[in-house]
Design brief:
- There is one protein chain.
- With 194 residues, the chain is of the alpha/beta class.
- Helix 2 packs across helix 6 (119-126).
- Helix content is 36%, strand content 21%.
- The strands form two sheets. The protein has a five-stranded mixed sheet. A three-stranded antiparallel sheet has the order 1-7-6.
- The longest helix is centred in the N-terminal third of the chain and has 12 residues, at 18-29.
- The protein has eight helices and eight strands, in the order αααβαββαβαβαββαβ.
């Protein structure tokens, strides 16, 4: 019954956007999360080669396909998940066309039953809003309470396409460059075969 009440409350609440997300994150961390411009500046400052595509805001894989992003075959979908007691949170990035069985994923992660975390949890922990979830958001996660995992298919492909903490743009870069950037920032990333 509690799950039904949460779902009904979430359905009645308007969607969280950037400004509400930033306010939630800032209240929890004392500073604002990384913006699209700051992520792009970080890539430029480190000399990371990437392709950028600006587009209308996209919230789903279907909307991203309709936006005709030029590096579509390497695009990611991102799942922000939690365990039933809200003690463990997970950011999992997979190829956007790949079907993900949450039971298999929870087994690979060694977790109990997984469900999607709320938009408020997403804003508080990663500083992004629904539709803008990305592995770059792990750079905002300074409490180290979110496990970050990326599907091993991206390592095999060598490339990944994802949002720069804002769903009005996508960047295409080498998977190894993303993993190095995250590791250099102290983010532990697991490569998972799912």
């Amino acid at each position: 019954m509690a799950g039904q009440n949460e779902a009904a409350t979430a359905a009645a609440r308007p969607e969280m956007g950037p400004e509400e997300c930033f306010a939630v994150y800032e209240a929890a961390h004392g500073h604002r999360p990384l913006t699209k411009g700051q992520v792009l500046d970080l890539l430029d400052g480190r000399g990371v080669a990437y392709e950028r595509c600006d587009h209308a805001a996209v919230r789903t894989v279907g909307e991203a396909e309709a936006a005709r992003i030029p590096f579509e075959r390497h695009m990611a979908k991102n799942l922000f998940l939690r365990d039933p007691k809200k003690r463990s949170y997970y950011l999992f990035t997979a190829p956007d066309k790949k079907k993900i069985d949450l039971r298999v994923l929870q087994e690979r992660l060694g977790s109990r039953r997984l469900s999607f975390a709320s938009p408020e949890d997403l804003a508080q922990k990663l500083g992004v809003w629904p539709g803008s979830v990305t592995p770059f958001a792990a750079l905002n996660e300074d409490t180290h309470t979110v496990r970050v995992a990326i599907d091993a298919d991206f390592a095999a492909m060598g490339w990944i396409g994802c949002h720069p903490c804002d769903n009005t743009a996508s960047v295409h870069l080498r998977t190894s460059d993303l993993l190095t950037l995250l590791a250099d920032a102290g983010v532990d990333v697991e490569l998972l075969e799912v």
